[in-house]
Amino acid sequence: MTFDLGVLSAYWLELLQGLGGTIWLCATGAVLSGVLGVLLTVGQRRGAPWLVALIRGYTALTLGLPLLVLLYVTFFVLPDFGVLLPAPLVGTVTLAIYYGPYVAEVIQAAAAAVPAGTVEAGVAIGMSPAAIARRIIAPQALPLLLPTLTGLLIGLIKDSALLSVISVHEFMFAAKAVVSDTYAPLEVYFVIAMVYWAATSVIHLSTRHWERRLGRAQRVAQTR
């Protein structure tokens, strides 16, 4: 068996287009899951009892399902009820639906770790709930959020490869098409693996850098 990346010389553009599709899907899915996570957190903290129960049920159901099952439901079952959506939209929304509850759980855990005394101090001096969240809770919770949110983002990027099963034109879908043309799975999947590894490594290292900066800033603030 030989290893020759030259067999891919005519397919780099196709792979790059697939990579561009993955970047767009992951960026959109990450933003939507973040927004959904915030909304779920607010709903559980400030919503009516029926809304809290609904969110908890949705969270329990989603956390107990594999992403692939949820993807099949949204793509293959919803059309039976007249809901027909483009595959990229289905993939992006499914990623958000799946990862939103995880984001909410992370936000709630980080907020719960903030010392109650700092929040009580904000209330005592007449700060509004929004100001307390922005100026007291967020600065202390963010260093706690970053590592876990980074793990979720990396998981989302890796799970985006599953969208190829519903014919979303992303990186893995392009790789399968190239393999069918070149019969060179070793070379193709080696490149795919290296690109995923590089992308997740850059995200991980960037987060470590911001963790150190936030940690230093927090220590400086505490000494003042």
Characterization of the model:
- One of its GO terms (molecular function) is transmembrane transporter activity.
- InterPro entries: AA_ABC_transptr_permease_3TM, ArtM/GltK/GlnP/TcyL/YhdX-like, MetI-like, MetI-like_sf.
- Residues 19-207 form the ABC transmembrane type-1 domain.
- Belongs to the binding-protein-dependent transport system permease family. HisMQ subfamily.
- Pfam families: BPD_transp_1 (PF00528).
- By secondary structure, the chain is mainly alpha-helical.
- It has one domain: MetI-like fold, CATH 1.10.3720.10.
- The chain is 79% helix and 0% strand.
- It contains 8 helices and no strands.
- It has helices at 12-46, 49-63, 67-77, 87-112, 116-124, 129-159, 171-182, 185-223.
- The longest helix is centred in the C-terminal third of the chain and has 39 residues, at 185-223.
- It starts with 11 loop residues before the first helix and ends with a helix.
- The mean pLDDT is 88.
What is the CA-CA span between the terminal residues? 65 Å
Helix content: over 70%
Q: What is the count of distinct domains?
A: 1
CATH topology: MetI-like fold
- Radius of gyration computed on alpha carbons: 21 Å
CATH superfamily: MetI-like
Low-confidence stretches: none
Strand residues, percent: under 5%
Task: Please name the defining characteristics of this protein.
224 residues; mainly alpha; MetI-like fold; 79% helix
What's the SSE blueprint?
Elements: H1 12-46, H2 49-63, H3 67-77, H4 87-112, H5 116-124, H6 129-159, H7 171-182, H8 185-223
Helix pairs in contact: 1-2, 1-4, 1-7, 2-4, 3-4, 4-6, 5-6, 6-8, 7-8
Organism: Caballeronia glathei
GO biological process, one term: amino acid transport
Keywords: Amino-acid transport, Cell membrane, Membrane, Transmembrane, Transmembrane helix, Transport
